[in-house]
Amino acid sequence: MSTVPxxxxxxxxxxxxxRNAAAFPHKPAxxxxxxREPGGGPRYREVTYGELQDSVEEIAHGLARAGxxxxxxxxxxxxxxxELFALAFAxxxxxxxxxxxxxxxxxxRMLHCYRAVDAEAFIxxxxxxxxxxxxxxxxxxxRIPVTLGRHRPWRGHTLAALRTAAGPRTPAAxxxxxxxxxIGFTTGSTGPAKGVEYTHRMAxxxxxxxxxxxxxxxxxxxxxxxxxxxxxxxxxxxxxxxAPLAPAKVAQADPALLVDALERFGATTMFASPALLRNLxxxxxxxxxxxxxxxxIVSGGAPVPDSVVxxxxxxxxxxxxxxxxxxxTEVLPxxxxxxxEILGETSAGSARGAGTCIGRPVPGTRVRIIPVTDGPRAxxxxxxxxxxxxxxxxxxxxxxxxxRYYDAPGSDALHKVHETRPDGTALTWHRTGDLGYLDxxxxxWFCGRTSQRVRTAGRDLHTVRCEGVFNAHSLVRRSALVGxxxxxxQRPVVCVESxxxxxxxxxxxxxxxxxxxxxxxxxxxxxxxFLHHPAFPVDIRHNAKIGREQLARWAERxxxxxxxxxxxxxxxxxxxxxxxxxxxxxxxxWAAVADVxxxxxxxxxxxxxxxxxxxxxxxxxxxxxxxGRAAGHGGAATAALTMLYGATWWRAL
Length: 653
Known about the structure:
Blueprint: H1 13-23, E1 28-36, E2 42-48, H2 49-66, E3 73-76, H3 82-94, E4 97-100, H4 107-117, E5 121-124, H5 126-134, E6 144-147, E7 157-158, H6 159-162, E8 180-185, E9 195-199, H7 200-214, E10 221-224, H8 227-236, E11 239-242, H9 255-264, E12 269-272, H10 274-287, E13 296-299, H11 306-315, E14 321-328, E15 331-338, H12 339-351, E16 356-361, E17 365-370, E18 392-398, H13 409-415, E19 416-420, E20 426-438, E21 444-449, E22 454-455, E23 460-461, H14 463-471, E24 478-484, E25 491-497, H15 505-520, E26 530-532, H16 548-559, H17 564-573, H18 575-593, H19 600-619, H20 621-630, H21 635-645, H22 647-650
Parallel strand pairs: 1-11, 3-4, 3-5, 4-8, 5-6, 6-7, 10-11, 10-12, 12-13, 13-14, 25-26
Antiparallel strand pairs: 1-2, 8-9, 14-15, 15-16, 16-21, 17-18, 18-20, 19-20, 20-21, 22-23, 24-25
Helix pairs in contact: 1-2, 1-3, 2-3, 9-10, 10-11, 11-12, 16-20, 18-19, 19-21, 20-21
């Protein structure tokens, strides 16, 4: 029986938390890292359902006294923890609308998102408020600033003061299923970030569908790597354990700390990206012991390699399940498939170029495949759908689908399609922007992004279908198909991550074998060019979705290198910033150990050099990071080399 009430009988998510707190006030709701133990490991703190609900009501009352009420668009920036959950549910309780942006997307993209929403309230730590104060054009309508903590260096409220507001507690607002719950933004990994409207009905439907698809119960203890799933745990009445990791760097999470949390709290379920699960499976394999309590792992956010699924099966109890899900910011979940079906049936098809099987639509969600179009499609008509086995664009419809984007009619026109059924029923379908097909058993196969298909003179090549063939090679860690040139006449290139050294005889042998694989399969036939890449750029949310647009630009530069004379000139140009640093450091040392002659020209040159070498180079780091990632350089290395060489380094990538 579902623990989530039907949207027609429930006011919203805040009611679910309040109901759970009344039913089991002393049950742990949130367990989270809170400092360090004397031995250096993470220390955890526990918050019960009763304590959390009390915080929600306390905060909601204070926010209401400050002027945040039903419909108030409120920027919410708080680190993962009980306070984030309390703030979110307090806003839900008031009928206010949290505006949530992934901080990992960078300041420029975040400001673009906030500018699109024009929020009236802002809740965040002091550093976030500093960005707000400096970005007056973006946050010009904010009239209610709330600073987390007890101190604020500007006008407004502190959360600590609001929590002590006098008077009787503010009652929960009455909200309807179609009222706006929150605005969450897409990552913008394949285009501009868009504000997705979540209604109360949609959120409850998402909770019910995940509960049904993965067998969630209130008896579960869930290890959470994304805060959104913690909100769902609190709706179910289960215990959420926040993983000890940085949300924007899940691929770099320490697997030993994750295993410690899983075992210490007896976690029964977890959601994680493929990048995190790969590291976790490798660590558990090296330990040589399975996780006995973990009964369900759910992965999504990017195609999950079959090798990761197989590795997880060896370190889990035989009764445990591993689910691979497919969804989007606009609709969660769409489909789900369990590891037994992947390893027993569908993985062989992936290696032949069939794409990645992502399972059957979850109950309450319908999927259609239609011919690919790059522009808007206003309506669906009878006979539009493609038959089984034909690749087209994936459309989704159901209660868990966002009805629209926030104040973005252009995005609605491009991604929403309307249909009128013969009985007069009006439906709105969401265009996922993904390619796929349904097989004769009703399973959906993912073939790649519509915008990332490679359009050659003879045919369209689908990224995930082609990459599945090459990823089956034991020496290939990952591959990525990209296109160079204008659509319709693109030159296909396959970028390859491999431990085989580039330029070696082994690499030449590998390329020959990959060409042989390409010739043996219809989806890859004719692919001849392979480039070695040290580390693919990936998305900020799951650290797993490949940045093919960045790779395409990198491949184009690699295949059309500058003339030798220009290369020599670029190397010579790097001597200029090196000479500048030498002059800067030499002058500083000279001034520190000896009397420097008072020569105004030399002093002026030194300060000019200091400005050019330090703030000017530092200002170029945001511009250099995307090129550095595409070329396989880490963020720290890109920042260091940009500080050293400036534009003479990163513009040549």
